[in-house]
Amino acid sequence: MYKNLVSVIIPTYNRSAMLIKAVESVTKQTYKNLEIIIIDDGSTDGTKKIVQEMKDKRIKYFYKINSGPAESRNLGIKKSKGKLIAFLDDDDTFSPQKIQKQVQYLASNKNLAFCYTNSYLLLANKKYKYINKKPDDTYLSLLLKKNYLVCSSIVVRKNILLKNKLFQKEYEPLEDYELWTRIAKNHRFGLIDLPLYSIRWHNTNITKNVHKVIFNNSRIRYNHLSTYSQPVTRKLQNEISYLTKYYDAIRSYYEDEIVSARNLLIKLIKTRPLNPILYIFFLQTFFPRHTVLNLFYQLYFIFMQEKVSTI
Question: How confident is the model at residue 311 (pLDDT cuts 50, 70, 90)?
Answer without folding.
Answer: very low
